[in-house]
Each structure stands twice: as C-alpha cells, then as structure tokens.
User: Fold Putative glycosyl hydrolase from Desulfosporosinus meridiei.
Amino acid sequence: MATLKRGSRGAEVKELQSLLHRLGYNPGTADGIFGLKTLQAVIQFQNDSGLSLDGVVGPITWQALQSKDQGYQIYTVQSGDTFYKIALKFNLSLSSLIAANPGVNPNQIRIGQQMLIPKTQPKPVLIRSVGGWIPYWLQTQAFRSVQNHPDMFQNLSPFWYEVKASGEIIKYPGAEDNSILSFARTQGIKIIPLITNAFSSEQISAVLNDPIIRQYHVNNIVKLLRQFNYDGIDINYENLFVSDREIFVIFLQELKIALAAIGKQLIVTVHAKPDPFGDWSGSEAHDYLGIGQAGDAVRIMGYDFHWSGSEPGPIAPADWIDRVLAYAVTTIPKSKIVLGVPTYGYDWPLELGQVGRGITYSYALSTARRYNTPIIEDIQQGPHFIYRANEVVHEVWFIDATSFAPLLDLVNKYDIKGIVIWYLGAEDPKIYDVIQTSFR
Assistant:
C-alpha cells in the first residue's frame, strides 16, 4: 500500500477510511480524500496502538491497521451494557476485551459507542485435563487468572465450604460468587466446589462414625449441588484418624451413589505418598485403593514436601513426585488420577520457633530484588534464595515456570488424567505457556 498523508486522494485513501470505520474510528465520509477528519482518526489510532503520532499511514501503520481489522469485529454499545456484560456476550475474558480497546475507559462507555471485539479462537486441544483451586482469601486475584486464561481450564474448584461435626455445611467468605459462576458457565468450565474439614481430625470423625449424621451430610451435599447446579463436589477431608480409614471409604461410596443419581461428579483430594503409609498418619488414613474405586477422580496433593512447619526446602521436588505417581498408578486407575501442582512458595525465618509463611511467585521475586540477593535456579527442586532482614536470616523456596515443567513431564510419563493448580492467583504467568507446550 502507498504511504498516505493529509492531502492524499484516491482509492487507497477510500480503503483507509473504510478500514478506520471498521475499527471504530471516525474519518468522516469514505470519499477518498485524506482531510482533517481522516487525519484525526489516524492519529487517534496511532495513539491507541502505541505508534508514532505523525498522522502518516506508512508501512508500520498499515500493518497495524490490517492486523487489527483481521482479528476483530465491531460492536455498538447498547443500553445497559458494561465491559463485563459485553465480555460475557461474546465469550471473552474481560482482560482481552480491555486490551482490544486501549482508548476506551471501561467505566465510561456510552450508548452508540463502537468497540473492537476480538474474534474468539478455538480452545487449545489439550491431551490432559487442567483444573484450578480458587482460595477464598485470594479470590479476586485467582479469578483474574481464570479470566486471563479461560481456554486453559476444564474445571474450577472454589474453596467455599466447610463441614462441621453436625454434618452441616457452612460457607466461607465470598462463597457462591455469581460472577465466577456466570463466567465459568459462559466459558464451558465446570464448577466443582471444595468442602474442607479445616484439617480437623475430630470434626470429620464425628460425621463419619455416626450413620445418621453421615447421611445428613450426604443429603446436604446433594441439596447444595442441586441448588447451584454445580457439576460435582471436591471432598477435601485431610488429617483423618488412621482409625477412620475404612469408614471414610464407606462414606465416599454412599456419597457416590447419591451423586450418581443426580448426574454429579465425586472428586476426592488426598495426601501425597510414595507407598501405602506415607510419612505421617494423615497420608496413611487415605486408602488410595478404596478412594480410587469410589471417586470419579482422585486429586493427589503433590506439594508441601516441605511446609510452613518444617525446615526449609523444596515444595514439590520432581524425584518425590515421581515416586508418588509411581505408587498411585498401582492403586488408582490412571484415567482418574489428577496431580495437584503448586504455584506458591514459603519464606522461612531461620530462628528457633519460627514457622514459614506462604508467599506468591511475585512476592518471591520482589523480595529477592529488594534485598539484592541472587536466586539459585534449580529445575528439579525449585528456585530458592537466602536474605537477611532486621538481623534475621530467611530462606525462601518457591515455584516458577521452569520448575513447574518437570511436574507436567511426570504427568505425561505416567499418562494420568491431568492437573489441578494449587493455587490460582499465586502463579508465575509463564506456567500457562508451559501447560500448552506440555499438553498439546
């Protein structure tokens, strides 16, 4: 295309004006005359696209115009529209709609205004299932991760409920958030909320060992799934008494029958272990064989090899995960096994009696920069570093995309169902590139 500027005339100017119109700018009538209105429209487009504001349509501006024209359609704002409603209407993430309209204030759209709607791309075909846990204490940030990568997820499990000793189910703050439910359903993502026992052995034991309370709890789960039309439930009952090993499986069998009757899935989350016993009572109490028979899927928490109360060290070393999966596939069908993969880290103060604090990937990076300390990269164990603050030495271990990748390689090695991310909102953004590379 020829280089055009104010005063230019002809068919190419007319094509430019039509193109600007399609992209939501106003160059005036498409009359083939590069006048003041066309100049103003070109400069506005250059400003929105981060180009030089010279008003000249040369090769770079032509390329930007044609690129946007091929990947977008025009939408005229209607009464009652908001950015969020428009994103839902076109099955888009909110972030992609905002990115496509850099010159539009999301809080000040008006009726009749034209916006660019990115043409949706088909979901990447992944050979593994990808899910994510949404913690209630980081719900807004975690939901943003989903909005930014809706094509990645087949299911989401918001951390919304707790079982009490009475068999009642209580809600955590932010539970049943309609924005999450609406967005997930628009994107075709299954919602399978999580119920926890708050790590209380006594709390869940009271439910499991009383047939009346146990049935009451099953009925409450069924009622909850029907009320919100959830796709299933994630039973995350941790730190069980070893004496409750068998009755827990019986409970799951009873729950499975009740859920199958209404077409809902039973997901069970279990402690990771490389043998039938593991290294503590909670892992021993999870009977992989019985749980694998009862559940539609079994999520193995492949993290906290070192945890807040332990000495510093890797959170999900690849050699440990290898042993965990090697054992799991001997007791649970591969098609049911889902590996819980971590995204977070811990910061341990190296003082007597101090415990580690959970941190996000971004916090780890900012801390290393703040204290000007080098990060030791270790693909198999995870990145880590040491720093000193207020005369206290700290040791930090965390997960980045590089150390995340070997865990996905193990998922492929053992040919299991897929992964579930613990937890969304804490991750290195590059893990989504790793997922696509590993699972496509």
